[in-house]
Amino acid sequence: MPEEHGTGRFHRLVQRLSPAANGTCWRPHPKRDDKEKKTRIPTHPIELAQRSVRRASRRNNDVDRELGPSAASQEPTPTASQSWRGDSRRRVRKETLESRLVHINDEEPPHNFVRNSIQTSKYNPFTFLPKFLFEMFSRVAYLYFLLQAGLSWWDVVSPFGGLGATMALSFVLLMSGVKAIVEDVKRHIEDDKINKSLTKIVNPLTGEIRSAKWRDLQVGDIIRVDDDELFPADILCLHTGLPDGVCFVRTTNLDGESNLKIRKPVDLRGFEQDIIDGSSTRWSFRSTAVLECELPNKNLHKFRGRFTVAHPDLGPKADRHITIPVTMSEVLLRGTLLKNSRYVYGLVVYTGSETRIQMNAAKVPLKMGSFDRFLNVQITVLIVAQIVLCILLAIANAWWREEEGFKRYFLGFDSFVQGNFDNVLLYVGLVFMTFWILTSYMVPISLFVTMEIVKFWQAFVFINNDPDMVAPDEPARARNSNLNEDLGKVEYIFSDKTGTLTSNDMQLRMISIKNQSYGSLDYRLEDTAEGHYGTETLHAFDMSLAESVIHLQKKDFWANLMAMGGSREFILSLPDSSPKLQRMQTMDRETLHKELAGFVFDSLPETVGELEVFDKDEATPTTAEQAESLRTPSAKLKIAGKDVGDVILGWHIVDFWMVICICHSLIIDVETDEFGNVNRNYQGPSPDEVALVEAARRLGFEFRERTMTEIVLWMQGLEVRFEILNVLEFTSERKRMSVVAQAPDGSIHLFCKGADNVMIPRLKVDSKSDVVRDTEESLHRYSVKGLRTLVLGSKILDQESYRLWDAEYQDMAGSLSTDRDAQLNRLAEKLERDFELVGLTAIEDKLQDGVPMAIETLRRASIKVWMITGDKMETAINIAISCNLVTHQDSLLIFTAEYRWDARDNLSHLRKMAEARLRAGLNVELVVDGPSLVHVLASSLEGELAYLGSLCSGVVICRSSPSQKAAVVRIMKEFELRKAEEGPGGPVLKFFRRQNRKIKAKMLAIGDGANDVTMIQAADVGVGIAGKEGRQAVNNSDYSIGQFKFLIRLLLVHGQMSHYRLARLIKFSFFKNISFAFVLIYYQFFCGFSGQTLIDDISAAMYNVVFTSMPILLFSILDRPVDDTILIRFPQLYNRSTSLSTETFWRTGVIQGMVDAAFCFFIPYFSASVRGDNSTHGLWSVGKTIYISMLGVVTLEVCLVARYWTGLFSFFVFLSFALVFPFCLAFPHAEQALGMFDPGQYGTAENLFATANFWLSISAVYVISFGYRYFMRSWKWLFDPDDNMTLAEFEQMKGPLADLTAEERLRLAALDIVEGPNSTLTATSINERSKSTQKRHNRPISAHLNREP
């Protein structure tokens, strides 16, 4: 065979083929049995086989005619003798600008794709140092310290030696470097473990299998994966080990969902026996094939490609090529786990960093904590102040040189040498650098390391290990410790409803069939024992439903109805089966007679009888006027004495449960327990679907099995098989799901379920029916009970019309055009119209434990809670009332608008009402309709809505989309920042007010599902709840908890504690460094502003890094103002603290440091004596006295503000001060041992400690400094205590739980703080009581404790 007629022909053929890709609706291959006359129609993209290859075959025929028959006949068949691994002739891998080509058994040069190894680590031994140093010095603070350390080595300008500053910076870098190395080593170990994992590579020609490491996989390899193994790359499924040709995967690593999902191999049915030789031990692919697919991208839900196979055995005149569309249904992504499928063979498509999971491994957006922002601003201001101070000191030095220095000939100022320039500007610049180094201690270098340690401890020790925040198998997790302090400053909470406030434990409570309600809120289907499923449970659920089913099960009525797949078109169109049908027109009665033939009558009556209505207890028919009132199950509808009401209701019952059992995306997970019992559990992405299908099973309507081509139901003891033709998947935009299925009798049905706002406009409505009005009434009736509703619809399709629609749909599904999805939605809209109403479902989603009391606590903490949900307004309001978010239903403000001008007018009116209620001292509560937000978002009305929302204590937004959730958070953040800028002053003042707002008030978003991710990321603090909707919210959050009520402890305890501790850490760190810096500055007034220092560089470094670090570190980790219980019992404390503001920072951190520095400098300086054997007037003697005085002052300060003393804290406080004395004695000897003799240090300490003057001087400093601070603090405690002080005294005297009221006990019991209350108060009574006590929540703490400050 000539070589040019081989793979080259095949390659050109591949380029000519353009069949479908990535259709959400597809057609299985038709059976080859000529007796099978039914058209095989596309079916579910997850569960069933690919669409027919006949359309591709027709295209291939056209190509073959163009190329000529010889081209098709000369396709070579690979042989087993061809090389397997590394032979470029066997496997072609090529990538174009638009798509990727992956070949099997073909001969072209390989293309170099990325390796399959992954790297999540940041460093290696060669890149660590440059990368780490670049990251550290990219921060302004560290660059500042680097500059200081570098200048300190310049002897001409530096008052210190370079060793001290360098040691301090090196210590900080060392600590950060060790932390980075430890974290990166963990990543290296994990990467190495993954990359060296083993998988099996298969020779597609011989079936030979060999082991290989994951990192050695290449695009184009064929691999085998067995049960409970992870997929090492993104692969195309070619063959599975199950007889029905599907496989099950768990995608927890991708989206957090633990339920199983179905995938399937590429559809080669009809040819697979000729192409694939597969068994459990050996598998081979006996043909050439090419996959053309999209380039690597992040989309986890869609995949576009086509798989073209050359048939090896057909003759030259036959169609030798088949092309199959490839969707995500045939793709198995890296990181997913194979379950219950035996094994899978697949073609590697994407590797390494190009796999979907790696491309989606984006980091959570970086969020900066309040104190980080605060420090950036304050350090900037402090550096500006330092620059000004250094300029003034440099000018003062130049002035002193001119006025006094030249007079002192012994100073040598008249000799202009290096460091003493004649040029005044050059001299001032040089002295400026000297003072820059001297005052560099104003910014504490140790603060940044200490803050990292404290935040790490708060997050990973206190929060992660809090035993009071552990749900079953789900402890709290801090994923971003940068925001610990922000947890104590939350002003707004934006919460999802389902799974966040509610338990996401869906249970069917009531149903409506043709707008007739059945079931009861009091009946619990979930409590039914498995042995009682079926008619017995149906009878308990609703007697009339059971009676109708039993009536139809007589003779063969039920079997006939199952064969038809439900009601015929006329019965389906009847509005209900109630006695009001008596008013039918004659033509409709004739049709009804015909439809009921064989079900009620043995044969069609010769004459059409009148519809008569009987009561069960009466033997005579009622009048027409009475018939309308007999719309109860006791009424009987008869024709010619035959009971037809139960028959019609029975048909409608079947229609209802057919929609439930067919229109879903669930699979059955079969598990065997330790006792050998087989459990069949439904799994799927939607808890609503699981609840509905599980309820149907309990009532006797069971979804039993899916096969490649069918879905099998068990309807009250009778098996029914439907062929699934099309599935139009549910999306958040469509808000509905539709399934086209073929009944046993060949009729084609369209089943649909969805949200009421998209289903009602699609119902078939005529002049004879009030279906829309009745449906809306039923929806309202369920919604006010807090039930979630879905609308069910169905219709019977005309076979020819459906065939034409499907042909158009399949053509578009096979397109690779950019508007393909939009065109498919357009075609779906064309089919999904004129439904007959089947019924409604009403599902209960119970509130989580403690939610009402949690929200009540948040409201008392003056936190504004917004609930944002996709539910109907009535349902949302009912849930809001149940959880205490809405306390005044009668005065609830509701914002709705159909047009933008309506929105403007309504917002203006609601604003006036809200302001009036606030003036009256009442809470304002608002409900916003989601569709109305469309007229507000991205318009000038955003500010109006934000202002109205800011006046409200509670807001409910219903019918919202995920993008609207994030938009609401955004507009509130922008509004509050704009509001903060208001007021007099220029841009600088506005900037500082804006920054102050960012520090004082934060916005928190909490949710549990993927639809909450954008909201969580848009908020200042994002909290994820690990629930039944996967872990997407948790994976994108800053903190995760197991239940909503844990948010109380996260905010009120951990948030307030973190804020309290970090605020004091920052203030104290600056206080001790400002004190140190100003001691040196004060001395300049006595040394001619020369830049001379009193303290050596090593002692200065020890002051920062050793002597003052441990007390404040332990204080920042252990100290607390009051007990945890007090913080939850009195939520009014929350967000009232002014521990750290610009004013307190400069007052207690800077000015107080300057004052204490004055005590520490002037008392020892003027107390120095030249008398006696051991004089203390020397420079280094005075310096050491000042140094030890200052160390004692800052140690006493931390002792004074500490409220929670422990043995560990006491030990290190003593040790940090006591160590200074042996250090001063040993330091000169250590220098001497290193050959660094310093005459200024040697013998100074021994001489100093032997004098009474030294001890009297430091004692005087301690008494004056500490006495002054003790007096001021005592005055504060006695005459102007803050809330923390009041409650600390209350706790000390009575205990944290003393004098509990019944209301407090109920609230704390709901939050698991105390045991159950000894009162009869309920959540409702708390709600009622809160209406009359709104003002009391904002009263001072002292008023609650009956104490006047």
Gross morphology: elongated
Q: Name the poorly predicted regions.
A: 1-94, 582-587, 601-637, 1318-1338
How many helical stretches? 47
Strand ordering within the main sheet: 19-41-40-39-20-35-38-37-36
> Based on helices, strands and strand pairing, what is the structural class?
alpha+beta
Estimate percent helicity: 40-55%
Q: Strand fraction band?
A: 15-25%
Question: Sheet bearing the most strands, described?
Answer: 9 strands, mixed
Q: What average pLDDT do the residues reach?
A: 78
What is Rg? 40 Å
Q: Would you write up a description of this structure?
A:
Helix 36 (about 1110-1120) packs antiparallel against helix 40 and helix 38 packs antiparallel against helix 43. Strands 19-41-40-39-20-35-38-37-36 form a 9-stranded mixed beta sheet, with helices on both faces. It is of the alpha+beta class. It starts with 6 loop residues before the first helix and ends in a 5-residue tail after the last helix. The protein is built from 47 helices and 41 strands.
Features:
1349 residues, alpha+beta, 47 helices
Summarize the model shown.
The chain is an alpha+beta fold.
